[in-house]
Design a protein that fits this description.
By secondary structure, this protein is α/β, with parallel strands linked by helices. 34% of the residues lie in helices and 28% in strands. Bound molecules: adenosine-5'-triphosphate and magnesium ion. This is ABC transporter ATP-binding protein. GO terms for molecular function: ATP binding; ATP hydrolysis activity; transmembrane transporter activity.
């Protein structure tokens, strides 16, 4: 089954002379468990695509199907729950709660849902991300890169079916970037999570199962590499 599918997905910003077609009739589908790298020049429409898939913004035209359910057909409440469970977003910007410690920040979404976190997986994630001796610290006591890793840990432990990551290694050095990619690959393998990863880094793109190249709002190449 294709876990995620779009049909003629189109996003137009502005109107008249300031009209920009950021996504132009994009139709594609992603199999469950696939790790997909999305590449393309700056301004080509990558983040726009992720925002639409993640429900941050609505398409001008076209459809999105998650597990064969068309998103716009769901009622607002149902949609919010469905999206939260199914789709996890990792941005370059992360909103940590300043008044609770790192451990609570990571576990909060799970606890709010009344789910019991898998502490073995928690320890694994925290270990790989080098956060084990930061768990009792508050977000304000962390560096930018550490805060970014806390946000990534939070998304991973929640284990949504689909992870949408917009340059999650954007501000990090090579060692930390590699660790994050290893973690994404681990969660992809261990839990069959489907991952869409925007990256400008060719080395990272080559770690994926498939590379989709977006230029001027269109998919210009789509290659399965493993
Ligand atoms: P980058 O690699 O620089 O992050 P991108 O591929 O993610 O680029 P998008 O952010 O998707 O690019 O932007 C696609 C196009 O849509 C760009 O021309 C951009 O200027 C435009 N755009 C994006 N968001 C808006 C917005 N809120 N209003 C108007 N235009 C926008
Ligand atoms: Mg972008």
């Amino acid at each position: 089954m294709d876990i995620l599918r779009t049909k003629n997905l189109t996003k137009v910003y502005g109107e008249g002379i300031s009209k920009i077609i950021a996504l132009d009739n994009v139709t594609f589908s992603i199999e469950k468990g696939q790790l997909v790298a999305i590449i393309g020049a700056s301004g080509s429409g990558k983040s726009t695509l992720l925002h639409l898939l993640g429900g941050v913004d609505k398409p001008t035209n076209g459809q999105i199907f998650i597990e064969d359910r068309e998103i716009s057909s769901l009622k607002e409440k149902e949609l919010a729950l469905f999206r939260r469970r199914k789709v996890g977003l990792i941005y370059q910007f992360y909103n940590l709660i300043p008044t609770i410690d790192v451990k609570k920040n990571i576990l909060l979404p799970m606890l709010l849902d009344g789910r019991t976190p898998d502490m073995e997986y928690f320890n694994e994630i925290v270990g790989v991300l080098g956060l084990e001796n930061r768990l009792t610290h508050y977000p304000g006591q962390l560096s930018g890169g550490q805060q970014q890793r806390v946000a990534i840990a939070r998304s991973l432990i929640y284990r949504p079916a689909i992870i949408l990551a917009d340059e999650p290694t954007g501000n990090l050095d090579r060692k930390n970037s590699n660790e994050i990619i290893e973690l994404l690959k681990l969660s992809n393998k261990k839990y069959k999570q489907t991952i869409l990863l925007i990256t400008h880094d060719e080395k990272i793109a080559l770690e994926a199962d498939r590379i989709v190249d977006i230029e001027d709002g269109k998919i210009i190449s789509d290659e399965v590499i493993r």
